[in-house]
Structure formats: structure tokens, C-alpha cells
Model the fold of this input.
Amino acid sequence: MTDDKDTRQELIAELTALRQRVDELETALSEVPASEWDVFKTLPMPVYETDLSGRLLHYNDECLALFGYEHHEIAPDMKVDDFIHPDFIQETRERYARIQKDGSISGRIVPVLKKNGAVIYIKTFPSILERNGKPFKVRGTIVDVTEMRDTQEALRESEERYVLVVKGANDGIWDWDIDAEITYYSPRYKAMLGYEDHEFPNTGEAWREKLHPDDRERVLATTRPCETGKEKQFEVEYRMRHKDGSWRWILGRGGCLKNKKGKVYRLAGTHTDITERKKAEQAIRESEELHNALSRATFEGIFISENGNILAANHTASEMFGCEHGEFIGFSLTDFVADDFRELTRNNIRTGREDPYEVMAVHKDGTVFPVEIQEKTFVFKNKEARVVAVRDVTRRKQAEDRYRGLFENATEGIYQSTPDGRFLTTNKSFADILGYDDTEELIDSILDIRSQMYAEGADRDMAIETMKRHGKILDFETRVKRRDGSIIWISESARMVYDDSGDFLYFEGFIKDITERRINQRTTQVLYEISSAVSTTSDLQELYRTIHGVLSQAVDATNFHIALLNEEEGTLTFPYSHDECQEDFRKINLSELKGNCPTLDVIRSNKPLFITHDRMKCGPLPDTHSENPTAAVWLGVPLTVKGRAIGAMAIQHYSDKDHYTDSDIKLMTAASEQVGLAIERKGTEEELFRLNEQLESMVLDRTRQLLDKARELEMANQRLKELDKLKSALISSISHELRTPLTSIRGFAKLTLKDFERYFERTDEADPKLLKRSERLKQNLRIVESEGERLTRLINDFLDLNRIESGRMEWNDRMIAPGIIARSAANSVMGQFVDNSDVEFVQNIEENLPGILVDPDRIQQVLINLLHNASKFTTKGEVRMIVEQKGGVIRFTVSDTGIGIPKEDQQMIFEKFQKRRQGDTLSGVKEGTGLGLAICRELISRYGGSIWVESAPGQGSDFIFDIPIQPVLP
Ligand code: ADP
Done:
């Protein structure tokens, strides 16, 4: 039973749950009446449902198609707003708001946007769905009314166009059906251009070709927007060719018709002939332009006045016075003239004055400006009127002011003067140059220019004469008197001025003060003359004199002295002085100097000194004679060389303390350096001259001494030569004299030895004492023999050398192969090597050597000597003789493996009687004469060859000599 109960419980619970689920589903079903929408959505038209906020709940396929969307492109939260044309969104929102408020909604036509952006018009038929008596959603259908709407629009526009055409019905009418390509021109249209109906083809071309070429672009630019539909209407004025060839002005108006798609399919409009109107307009414009141009083109302001009242004024007048055209009317001319000039102007108008006069005019803004007025009476509108020309002369006045400024401020003196010698006008500079306070004083004072102004009246005559002949003078340099009587230099340029009828009126010109320049010229001249005096004068005294002369031309140098300071000696000398009151100036010892010495002051300070009487205490020169009157004025300048004062030069005047002017001081100062230099140079020149003379006499002395020496040397030389000859003769005679007895000595020694051996030796065999003595005797005889032989060799060598040196050697030169000489030399010495097995003799003689022009005996002698020496100083090894060609020479080499020769001896062994002490003491070696190599050198040098040794101690020696293949004979 328990089981049953449980099962029932479970069933009840299951049922309860099921019932709950059914309830839920029912509720859901009642909220979404899906079946109803399913039916609805199948309607063959766009249908939709939204909630009360306008959110899209449902839509059918037609709806999507209308708006051009796919299903998946509709987002769940999309609202009606997203489809409505932006201009209508606000209205749409208000509609939905109203549903909430009063539960009402009505259909409407509203533009919406398709997905592709195109605008379509739809008419909606919405209804509100209620639940529980309350609106909860909107459901509606949609109809696309776009086409219907376009048609209505086109109708409206067409109506407008009709009105337009009707309005211009009196004019020519044209109509162009673009799609149908039909053009229509009304007969009136054609007649307007002078054509009968049939004469003017109904084509677009007919219109285009009659267009004025200048207007074509403009016309097409105006009509084109209408053709493309951008504009609805156009209006344009242009010219068309009349049948008679004239141009007619046409006012063309037109409009367009568009089809449903907005494409223009028809243009139509009217033509009005406006030629006459255009002509009239043109005429007016031209007349206006002319008037305007005339009114503006004048430089004068022109007024027309009647009884002093302005009737009209031109444009220039308006500008001149700053008034609008109309502002003049009704005013009097005098209203535009400054107060001071009113009366004058009024008078002139009244009296009808015709020549110009100047007054100050008043601008509208109150400014005053100068004008020139000229008037004339003439008839205007049948009445007598005045035409008044007013010219603004501000610029002219300014220019005049400027010129006056130029005239007054010019540094040149400018003047106008009368033919009878008085000044008409001068500027301030002119008065300044001539030393007058002002121009008035000058004009009043000078009544005869020739005598009062010119230093030389003749100069003025000459200037006038030149002007008369050439019309002018240019840079005429002359001297004139200043008011204070001083003379200055001026440069004058002037011309003669004539009136229109050619009568001479006055002189006009300007002057420049060129005193400074003239002084500079004078100074330059003085400097030049002083510097050239150095080369034209022969000594210092003459130079001083010349300097004095040159200075005298430029300044009063009656009293003039030159002083030179010698610092070493401590003296002041006066190498040149010229004075009215004093004899020559003495030399001053500076140590003894008492009181002032202006000359020394000048030198020490290296500055010019200008002293007038009042300041001069003890006269310029303290050493002067006691009766010397004190000078009234003293001017000293230092004489400098490279900035150092070497002395001074001074001028003085005894009576007139104003005797020297500034320009004199300047001149003296300027000249001082040049004088210093000149003196220095002249001094140096003299010194040089003196030195030169000294030098010359020294050279002469030396030359004489040298000549004496040379003569002595020559004599000594002569004597030497004679002595040498004597020596050679002596040597050769002595040698011969020696040789003969030597031969006897050697011969007898030999003979004695032989005889002794043969006859005495054997008999004394038994006595050993005697035997020993006989041995010594034999030995001594051998020594006599060998020493005799050595002496003979020495004498032979001596004779050889003597012969070569004294040029008495006989040379039997002939062309011979070097190999022949070498081989026969080898044969001569061969014997020396045969006995000695320790030393090998080797010969290397190149084949086919070129021949040399030599005395074969002499070269052989050289080789034998070298080979002999080699064998002499070699105990072991080899002696090698090499003969080969080396470039332009045949090279003979004798090399050995002997004792060698140290470097320091290699040069010396070629000298006469040179034997090396150490190393020569080889046992068994015959003592040499020390002449062999000296002779070799002499022999080889005769053929232009050379001999030398390459050796080192213990290393053997190479004696080498070269004989040129091309003979170099002395
Ligand atoms: P001498 O007749 O005395 O040999 P030379 O003029 O021929 O005179 O030689 C001068 C010196 O040169 C010799 O005394 C010797 O000292 C040195 N002399 C010459 N030839 C050789 C040689 N081949 N080796 C070493 N010394 C040499």
C-alpha cells in the first residue's frame, strides 16, 4: 500500500508541474499571437508591426523588398526612425508619442530611405493593437506612392512653364523636344530675324549658327544648366544675326520639362527683340563715359558759376576739395577760398580777370592748399556764365621750397650779379666764403665786383671774356679778397642769362673755396721738390741750400736754419743757417746749455713749436750774439726719420708776429719729414760714397799685392821646373852612374863566391872553425849579391818613374787583344808557382775580348807586378788572374788568398816608396822597393784607366784595374 501511496504522490506532483507549464505557455501564447501575424505576413503587400516606441517587431518579405534589405541586415533593435527621411523623423516621433497619449494614429505619405540611399514615398495605413483595453503595438501596411507623387510634381512644373510661355506670347516662341529631336520656332520668332517661316529651318543648328561668336560661350553656359536639369529656368541677352546681316539684341528666356526620372526632355521659351533698348543704353553709356572722362581727365578742377554761384563742378574739382558733386551746387566759389583771399577772388570774378592768380584754397576737411585760378566768361544754357579752372599747385610750391632749400643750404656759394658789377642775390655760403656776416652785408658792401672781390681785376675781365665767347666758365681758378683783406683761392663756374628776346640779363654762377686744395698742391710740390733734391744735389750743403730755396717759394724763409742733434757727442750743430741778424750759428754743447733752447725742445718733443714774441723769453737760440734782436715769431718743426727726430728746422721773423699763417705751419710740418728723410738719405749717400772710395783704394792695394805675389809665384814655379829638370837629369845620370859599378859589384861578388867555393872550400874541410868562417864568408857574398840586385831593381824602378813623370817614357802603343798581354805576363811569373805546391795559379781570360790600344809591355809590366806581389804575400790557396769586359772597359783582376791589406792602408800603398811595415815581413820574401804600385798607377792613368784594391786583412786581396776600350790618350 505504501507503494501505491507514494506513486500517487508522485503523480500529483507531476501533474501539478505539468499544469503550471501549460499555464505559462498559454500566457506566452496570449502575448504573442503568432498565428495572427503569420496570417498577416502572407498579405501580398509590405506589412509591419512595431511597439509603441516605434521599434520594429515584425515585417514581411515585401516590406524588406520595398526597402531593399535582406533579412539578416535588420538589427533586432532597429526603429522606424532608421528608415524615415531625416526631415520627417521628428514628426514620426511625435506620432508615436501621440499613440501613448490618446491612442490614435492615422495614415500618411512620408519619404523614406531605401538601403541604397534612394528616396521613395510611401503611404502607410497603420492601426493600433490593444491588449487588456490598452494599446500595445502598431500594425500597418505600406503602399509605394513615389511614382504618383512624381507625376503630381511634373504637373505642377508644367503648369508653371505654361504661365511663363503665355506671359511672353507676344514674342517669338521656341520649343525643343530633346527626346523627339523636334525644334519649333514660331513665325514671330523667325520674323524677328527677318525670315519668312519657310526660310528658317526648324533645327537647333539654325539657332546656333546665328549666334554672335562673342556671345556663344556665354549663352551656352547659361542654357546648359537648364538642359541638364540643374536649373529650371534661364534668361540671357545676346546677339543674333538678322537676315540683313545686322546684329539684333535678343532677350532669351526659357525653361525645362523633366520626366518622372528627373531627366529633361523638353526646353521651351521666348525671344524678345531688345535691339532698340540696347542701342539707347549704349548711347547713354557712351555719353556718360565721355562726360565722365572729360570730367576726370582734367588736372584742373572746373566750376561753372553764374553770378558767383556754382552751377556745376567736374570730378577733379570734387576730388580736389573732397566734396561730392552735388555739394558744390548753390555755394559761391569764394566759400572754397581761405579768408585772406576772399576779397581778391571776389574782385577778380567781378572784374572778369582772365590771367591766372594764386590763392589758398580750403579743402572740405579744413586743410588749406595753394591753387592757381584762371577764369573765363562763356555762354552756358543761354546765359552768361563763368568757367573757373582751379589748379592745385602744392607740388610746385613744394618743389620751389626744395630748390630754395638747396640754394640756401648749398656749400657752394651761389650768386647772380649784374653786368655793372653788383650782386643781385647770393646765398649764405657765398657770404661765408667771402667772410661777410650775411648776404645783405655782402650785397650792400660790394658795389664793384672787379676791384672789391677779385685779387687780380684782370682775372674777372678774362672770365667775362670767356663767358661772352663760350657762354660759360667752368672751374675757373682765381684768387679773391675776403672782407678782412685776406686772399683765398676759389674755383668759379658761371654763365650769362638772357631773356626771351635775347637781351643779356645777369650773370649766374657758383664758387668753391679751394684754398685748402691749393695749399695741398703747393705742399705736394714742395715735398716733391725736396725729395728729388736728394738725387739732384751733389752734397749735403747743396741739399740744404736747395731745401731752403724750395721752402722760400712757399713760405717766407728769409730767416731759416737747420739744426742736427748728435746724441753721442752731446752736441747740437747748425749745418745750415741763413739769418738777417746773425752770422753762422755755433755748435752748442748740450752740457753747457743754459736757459731755453726752442730748437732742442722741438727735437726732444718731436713736435712743431710755434712761438710768438710774447712767449719768447730769451730768444730762439741762447747761443746767439748778444746784439741779436728777439724774433717776433719763431716756427720750428722736427726733422724726423722713421718717427725719430734727428734735428729741427726753423723759420723766424723779427718784426711781424702774425707773419706766419696756419697754412705756413701746415706746410712746414708737412715738409719736415721729407727734409729729415732727404738729409738722412743724403748723409747716408755721402757716407756710402766715402766708404766706397775707401773700399776702392783697399781693393787697389790688395790687387797690387796679389799681382806681386803672383809674379813671385811664377818665378818660383819657373825655378822649380828648372830644378825638376835638373833633378831628373841628375837622377838619370846618377842612376846610370850607379848601375854600372853595381853590375861590377854584383858580378864580382858572384865570381868571388864561385871561385871561393871552387878553390878554397874543400882544402879547409878538416878545420870546423875554418869551415864555419868560410860559411859566413859565403853568406856575406850572397848578401852583397842580393842587395846589389835589389839596388839595381830600385834604380830601374826609379828610372822608370822618373821617365814617366818627366814625360820621357817611350810608348809603343798598338791595337792588341788583352788576352795576349795577360798570357805572356802569366808565363813570366809561372816559375814562381811551380816550386810552391801550396799556392795554385789560376787564369780566367774571357774569349773574344775587344782589342785595346796600349803599349803591351807596359800593361804586362803592371800585371807582372801585381802577380808578383800576390805570390809574394800568399803562402796558401790560390792566385787568380781574371780578364773580362765590363761595359766600356777591359777589367783586369789579380786576386789572392794572402795576408790582405787593412782598409786604412789601401790608399797609401799606391804612393811612392810606400811599403806596409807589418805583414811585409814574410819570411823568404824579397824586400820590395815600394815603387811598384806607384808605377802601375802612372802607367794605367796614361790610358785613362784606374787601379784600386779590395781587401781585408787575412782575407786576401783583389787588385783591379780597368782600361777603357775606346782609347783616352792624353
Ligand atoms: P814593393 O816593390 O815594395 O812590393 P809595391 O808598390 O809593389 O812595392 O807594394 C807596396 C806594398 O803594398 C807592399 O810593400 C805590400 O805591403 C803591399 N802589397 C802589395 N801587393 C800586396 C798583396 N798582394 N798582398 C798584400 N800586400 C800587398
In short: Residues 662-760 form the longest helix (99 residues). The radius of gyration is 74 Å.
